[in-house]
Specification:
Layout lengths: L1 E7 L16 H19 L3 E7 L4 E2 L3 E10 L4 E2 L5 E7 L5 E8 L4 E7 L7 E8 L12 E8 L10 E5 L20 E7 L4 E2 L4 E9 L8 E5 L5 E6 L5 E6 L7 E5 L6 E5 L3 E2 L3 E6 L5 E8 L7 E8 L2 E9 L6 E6 L6 E9 L4 E9 L7 E7 L7 E9 L9 E8 L12 H6 L20 H14 L4 H7 L15 E8 L10 E7 L4 E8 L5 E5 L6 E10 L2 E2 L2 E5 L29 E6 L3 E7 L12 E4 L18 E4 H11 L7 H8 L3 E4 L2 E4 L2 E7 L2 E2 L26 H5 L7 E7 L4 H5 L7 E2 L6 E2 L5 E2 H4 L1 E7 L12 E7 L26 E9 L5 E7 L7 E6 L2
Parallel strand pairs: 3-10, 13-20, 44-50
Antiparallel strand pairs: 1-24, 2-4, 4-5, 4-8, 6-7, 6-9, 9-10, 11-39, 12-14, 14-17, 15-16, 15-18, 18-19, 21-22, 22-25, 23-24, 23-26, 26-27, 28-29, 29-53, 30-52, 30-54, 31-34, 31-37, 32-33, 32-35, 33-40, 35-36, 35-51, 38-39, 41-46, 42-43, 43-44, 44-45, 46-50, 47-48, 47-49
Length: about 850
């Protein structure tokens, strides 16, 4: 056995412990892999985002206030890289309800999302990310799911939370990833290091879940192919546990009996490997991280490397070779690693990973000492003063910015989310999936909590693909640069074949909301891409792009880089499991009730306890701009609403073909809409079209067949051929399209519809009064055209559009009862005070003042800071 050489690495490998210099090619290759990791970290710095919210759940009509903290992953310090943060709120179905661009200053920003009364209740997701974060995958974005309830049935009574979900009759397309199909009981296995290796001691972690993905606590045994019991196991925490197995080529099966039930469940373990290494970590010692490596007898000895990486930076590197099957023990001083998740990878000179796993190094989670003094008699509308003294874990005053929320404890919605900025940046953001109650793993420093944390890392840890990108084995695709300001980026393709166009001159003229303009030119690179650096502005700016070759307009497709929003994830069990105040999950106190209109409803009774190459623009004066008004009729009853201009812009940004025909557009955008031979259906039902509140064609019959309706169709508002009629309206003329799954709505806008009958078999108009009444049995599509005349056709090689700048930021406000007579009406605010930027003085002191609501008797105070 060759003695391992431990190398403690500097940031850029300028020095090595013991002054070791790689000599042979194999050692040099191993060394180069780890050197590449830190080079990668330098060239492609990663960022992390955390959002602090004013509350734990919401009611329709309230506002979600939040503060964003953006840090560089390597040191968890405020990031000075990205200056643009994207924040989005998504509906339960994954539709982006609102998206904001926020200006980052010193890695911080704040904003809000309003929950309008017209929304449906449900579980809404708020997520945030910088554009360059998406280079590392969509799963790195910050995400938090909130329960959003209907307004209380009795104003101010928050003890009964009712969640009236979207009715089945108004179902919309679900854009979220499909959730896993769970059986009654499920068991997943995670061999330590990645594989089960024959003839060696293997630690196998597991996780057992129920039919909703919920953790199940139970016991079981492991059997070989002859049905003999090899070992037994029990869950330790959240359905997780582990056992030791010495595989000998048999097939192994876990036999589990759910607690309190007689039925047995059997699960096959992964196949065993005849060659390889067993990698085991013991993390219980306070001084050292103990690593045990053992080689299978059939494995050819070779020189190996083992790296210890934390948040993208390599800290420790060992070179070793195992000639025998005896285990090799490495003791890595924990002081050589920072607090956080360490990725341990065993590899050879070809970049093959023989073993990989995660371990948490805990030098103590930074915690602030917060002293607070509340001066209040808790009377209705009375003034409140809260004095804070904030110190670090060394007892020294902290002068810094904080975000502060003070809530009414009585109306606080319990949540399974117990994380904070520290646990999220150090733990949750490093793992796959949702981490329930991350605070549990740090509440006590004992063996049970340490082992539970280790099981969490074994079952929800990252895998080898990211390591292979960092060392240069697999390509790292940089799709997005670091946005150090507002950047308008895009790509030019040929008009027909969609080929990348190099050396095309792109001209830009942009009209800012404040009345100024900028203009400039930028040549496309070898991929047809271009970038313009814009001045900071708030709101939307209109712009015009033109492509030229040698000064002459060139017919092209101009794509803008703004279709990068991540795919909506499916909700995991705990993200929608609301505990009671006693800590139990919602399963014991949620009931399904029937609501009028077949609305699904849940009632919850809580009474129980990259830097981008950019081109600068010159500044000139703006001309007058016009804004078009939009129709709002039918909006509140619509199931689906298409802002046609935005949809067309998305089509153009994607480089897809456009359609002038409305029916082609709808068939492309909505999978439930079809038309064949002028016969249009939506979700299997006939469709009535209403254009600008006038009934349009709804039948495949020709004009000559309209005799039964001539008496009320003198203005020709009703025609008989859907496609021929709608083809008179180009898609560029349309403002909004709305789908309403309530045929009776047609009577509201077109009373003559009540006199129409439709044969349900042929879809034809008929005078037979026994036939189906069209407006009550059909679905309605409302089409509203743009006001102000037909749009002007753009010349070839030109694109006019708008571009979103930073979002305007509102300030949280609370009532002032100091100089007025106490109001007769009640004040039921649940968030009493929110300040995203409160700053302590040199002594760590700060005071805040606000007024109480009508009935608060206890405050819940939540404060966050880096």
């Amino acid at each position: 056995m060759k003695t391992p050489i431990t190398l403690i690495l500097s940031i850029l490998f300028s020095s090595l412990l013991y002054g070791q210099t790689p000599q042979d090619s194999t050692t040099q290759k191993l060394y180069s892999f780890v050197k590449n990791i830190n080079t990668f970290s330098y060239l492609y710095p990663q960022e992390k985002v955390y959002l602090h919210f004013d509350n734990t759940g919401y009611f329709l009509g309230e506002t979600i206030w939040f503060k964003a903290y953006v840090v560089t992953a390597s040191d968890l310090q405020p990031s000075d890289l990205s200056k643009v943060l994207y924040a989005e709120i998504l509906t339960p179905e994954g539709q982006i309800m609102e998206s904001k661009k926020l200006k980052l200053e010193n890695g911080q920003a704040h904003a809000d999302f309003m929950l309008k009364d017209s929304l449906y209740a449900g579980y809404y997701e708020v997520r945030a990310y910088t554009k360059s974060m998406l280079n590392f995958g969509e799963d790195v974005v910050f995400s938090r799911v909130f329960p959003v309830f209907d307004k209380p049935q009795k104003e101010g009574d928050y003890s009964l939370q009712i969640m009236k979900l979207r009715p089945r009759t108004k179902k919309v397309e679900d854009l979220r990833e499909a959730s896993p199909k769970y059986k009654s009981l499920n068991m997943a296995f995670y061999p330590e290091g990645g594989n089960l290796v024959q003839g060696l001691s293997n630690k196998v972690a597991f996780k057992i879940t129920g039919d909703k993905g919920d953790p199940v606590e139970t016991t079981g045994i492991i059997q070989n192919s002859q049905g003999q019991e090899i070992t037994n196991f029990t869950t330790l925490h959240e359905g997780m546990g582990s056992f030791i197995l010495y595989p000998d080529g048999n097939k192994y099966t876990a036999v589990v009996k759910e607690t309190g039930k007689d039925k047995e469940y059997k699960f096959e373990l992964p196949e065993t490997q005849t060659e390889g290494y067993a990698l085991q970590i013991n993390n219980l010692d306070t001084e050292n991280l103990t690593v045990q490596i053992q080689k299978a007898s059939g494995t050819v000895p070779e020189l190996l490397g083992i790296s210890f990486v934390c948040r993208g930076k390599a800290y420790v590197f060992d070179i070793l070779e195992l000639q025998e099957t005896d285990p090799l023990i490495l003791n890595i001083p924990k002081k050589s690693l920072p607090t956080g998740v360490a990725q341990i990878t065993l590899f050879n000179s070809e970049g093959r990973i023989w073993g990989e796993r995660l371990a948490f190094v805990n030098h103590g989670i930074p915690e602030l000492s917060i002293e607070r003094t509340i001066q209040s008699d808790f009377q209705p509308f009375s003034p409140v003063r809260v004095d804070f003294v904030i110190k670090d874990n060394q007892g020294q005053p902290v002068e810094s910015n904080f975000s502060l929320s003070i809530r009414d404890t009585q109306s606080l919605i319990p949540t399974s989310y117990t994380g904070n900025l520290q646990t999220d940046l150090l733990l949750s953001s490093e793992l796959k999936g949702y981490i329930n109650n991350p605070a549990y793993y740090f509440e006590q420093d004992d063996a049970r909590h340490s082992l539970s944390l280790d099981l969490l890392l074994l079952t929800q840890g990252w895998r080898s693909s990211r390591w292979k990108q960092m060392v240069g084995i697999e390509k790292f695709d940089v799709k997005h640069g670091i946005e150090n300001g507002l950047i308008l980026g895009g790509q030019v393709l040929s008009a027909v074949q969609k080929k990348k166009k190099e050396n095309i001159e792109v001209s830009l003229k942009i009209y800012y909301p404040d009345g100024k303009t900028q203009g400039g030119d930028c040549p496309t690179d070898e991929n047809g891409k271009f970038n313009f650096a814009l001045q900071d502005y708030y709101g939307k700016a209109d712009l015009k792009l033109t492509t030229r070759v040698k000064g002459k307009p060139e017919h092209t497709r101009i794509l803008l880089d703004r279709l990068f929003s991540p795919t909506p994830i499916y909700y995991e069990y705990y993200q929608t499991a609301i505990p009671t105040k006693s800590g139990n999950t919602e399963g014991n106190n949620i009931k399904i009730t029937e609501i009028e209109e077949s609305v699904d409803s849940i009632s919850v009774d809580m009474v129980t306890d990259m830097t981008v190459k950019t081109h600068q623009l010159s500044e000139v004066t703006v001309t007058e701009k016009k804004k078009w008004s939009q129709e709002q009729e039918g909006l509140n009853r619509a199931n689906v609403v298409y802002n046609v201009n935005e949809e067309i812009e998305n089509i153009r940004d994607a480089g897809d073909s456009e359609w002038d025909n409305i029916l082609d557009f709808l068939e492309k955008k909505n999978t439930w809409f079809t038309y064949v031979d002028y016969y249009t259906t939506y979700k299997g039902r006939l469709v009535i079209f209403v254009v600008d509140n006038m009934l349009a064609k709804i039948s495949p019959l020709g004009i000559e067949s309209a005799e039964p309706f001539n008496n009320f169709n003198k203005d020709k508002s009703i025609n008989m051929n859907v496609k021929r009629s709608l083809s008179d309206i180009s898609i560029d003329q349309v403002d909004k399209i709305m789908f309403v799954e309530d045929g009776s709505m047609a009577l509201r806008y077109s009373p003559e519809c009540g006199r129409i009958r439709v044969d349900p078999l042929t879809g034809l108009f008929t005078e037979d009064t026994e036939m189906m009444r069209a407006p009550r049995e059909c679905y309605v599509v409302y089409i509203y055209t743009k006001k102000g005349g037909n749009p002007i056709k753009e010349p070839k090689g030109t694109r006019s559009t708008s571009f979103q700048g930073y979002g305007n930021v509102r300030q949280f406000s609370s009532p002032n009862y100091s100089s007025v007579q106490l109001p007769d009406e009640k004040d039921f605010r649940r968030t009493l005070y929110w300040n995203p930027n409160i700053r302590t003085d040199k002594e760590g002191k700060v005071s805040v003042n606000f007024y109480n609501n009508s009935n608060c008797k206890e405050f819940d105070i939540n404060i966050e800071s880096l």
